[in-house]
Amino acid sequence: MNDTIYAALGTPGYGFFMTLLIGMLAGWIAERLTSSDHGIFTNMLVGVAGSFIGSRLAELVDIPVFGFFRTLIAAVIGAVVVITVWNALRKPRV
């Protein structure tokens, strides 16, 4: 696969729309797990970013990520990380 496309999508074997679908689903699941309230577009962005982060975290601990469910699990874990970091940065400091 072209390295540029792989770097942009972060998930080998999936096309652009499948990556968005997994991202949207992962963002929605992560939103529910973290008790956040976002719109569908934000869920999709968080999920796609989470997919990238989750797959990189899996590479660090040498866990293979392939197939729909493993990709979804990695994306959800990454999306939870993204939401947690985002919420920590947004909270007002007292």
Write the layout of secondary structure elements.
Blueprint: H1 3-9, H2 16-33, H3 40-60, H4 68-90
Keywords: Cell membrane, Membrane, Transmembrane, Transmembrane helix
Protein name: GlsB/YeaQ/YmgE family stress response membrane protein
InterPro entries: Transgly_assoc (IPR007341)
Describe this structure in words.
It is a single chain. This protein is 73% helix and 0% strand. It is globular. It has one domain. It is mainly alpha-helical and 94 residues long. The termini are far apart.
For the largest beta-sheet, the strand count, sense and barrel status come to: none
Instruction: Give the total of beta strands.
Output: 0
Binned, the helix content reads: over 70%
Count of distinct structural domains: 1
Give the mean pLDDT: 79
> Spans with pLDDT under 50 lasting ≥5 residues?
4-8
Please give the alpha-carbon distance between the first and last residues.
Answer: 49 Å
| Shape type | globular
Structural class: mainly alpha
What is the gyration radius calculated from CA atoms? 13 Å
Taken as a percent bin, the fraction of beta residues is under 5%
Count every helix, treating DSSP H or I runs of 4 or more residues as helices. Answer: 4
**SSE order, one letter for each helix or strand:** HHHH
